[in-house]
Amino acid sequence: MVPRKVDYSLYLVTDPYLVPNGTTLEEQVQKAIDGGVTLVQLREKDAETCDFIARAKAIQAITKKAGVPLLINDRVDVALAIDADGIHIGQEDIDVATARKLLGSDKIIGMSVSYVSEAAKAVEDGVDYVGIGAIYDTATKKPKKPPIGINGVRKVLSYLSSVPRYVATVAIGSLNLKTARNVVHLSAVPGRRLDGIAVVSAITAAKDPTAVSRELLGLVRDTPYWMSVVPNRDVSSVLAEVPVVISKVRLETPFVHNIINRVATNFAANVNLAIGSSPAMSENTPEFDDFAGIPNSALLINMGFGTDDWVETYLAAAGAYAKKLRPVVLDPVAAGASELRKGAVKSLLNWCHFDIIKGNEGEIFSIAGEASQMRGVDSTSNSQLQKKANVIEALASKEKTIVILTGKEDLISDGMTTFVLRNGHGYLADITASGCVLGSIVGAMVAVSLHDRFLAAVAGVLLYTIAAERAAVAPGVRGPGTFIGALIDELYILSKATADGDVSWLESARLERYVEEA
Fold it and tell me: Which UniProt keywords apply (predicted)?
């Protein structure tokens, strides 16, 4: 319906109540446009008509000069009064047909939608774009519906991918430097992705809206590292690179921030030190931003403990690391054991991107929506190899992540390539927190191998499981108790030997690429 091309990449929705002291809304809009805002919507919920028109004219003088379209929220009369580029309407506002008749065919009309049914009606009525949300809870507008999250966006985009007429899309609802990248790229479905994001407080309330806008635009337009998958990985080439990653951990001492259950804290800290990384165990939200800013940092979220505010803690930590473009590992401990934990994982996946998700069969199957059996933190499921491979490939592809499924045989997949690793020892199942510790090791590996997370996962699992085999037969090891100390020793020995150029221990690696039988 709109003859000209509209760039929806960074869509500013104003709120006069959020403007910082010492400046004006007009100044904030100008600075935002200087930073790359591509579309502006003027929202004045409480203004009298004459005041709304006056402000609209002032904002229009700025947007016209910059060649940026100006839309008016709800009010067709104001849009007509200043000859705005269009309007944005909600589900309970003026109907699209009437708005189109009043405004004309050359004006932009957008509508807020939350569900596929609303999107279908908006498309039928002839809107030019839909604003999908609210993605998350927002303080700038009291939503009448619950937040839809990333999965809600996927549903709407999936529908729109089947519609003959192209209808543009933006997401809205608490989008900022911590959430924008994940929403834009994780919500993408085959054939469709968001055209942009609509932002309110992150820009309007910013002390430096130019800088914030510039950074947000980059998050929308730039492809994140985790969207790239290396096709056709073969065992020999990956195995050849494993020593490089392990050596970098010892040489560069990556910082691994562990939010981990109390049982695993001491064990995980000692293992980190043994392989050359620097551990921190912290659940203190005020220091998350500082930790995320440390060079070569990574975050492990281990769901082994549960408190009243545990999900909020995880979200705050993941958001801090996302803002700094640093990797996050999720260990969804006992994910399928209770409705509480199932809900927690659902919330995390709706908010966050995880570079690596590591869990046992019950945990991974639960996340993937497959039937699983859990007894507390232990998985009692025992699926066939083909089933496990299919599940983790689908989950890795959907979440743009690397999935590690641990068990008698470990599987690692990036959605295109799946490896089966057959090292390890039975003692690992007889000690507390063995899986938790693996998550921390993988965190150290991905901290130094951010652009090859599959390699990082393979390196971490091989180092850990081969060290376990060696520890089990070390002198003085009589059972699980003495095995723990020997395991830490072997991790130290193998890591140091690798950094010194001795990789002979990798000759015992037993891994293969999974190929589905015809």
Answer: Kinase, Transferase
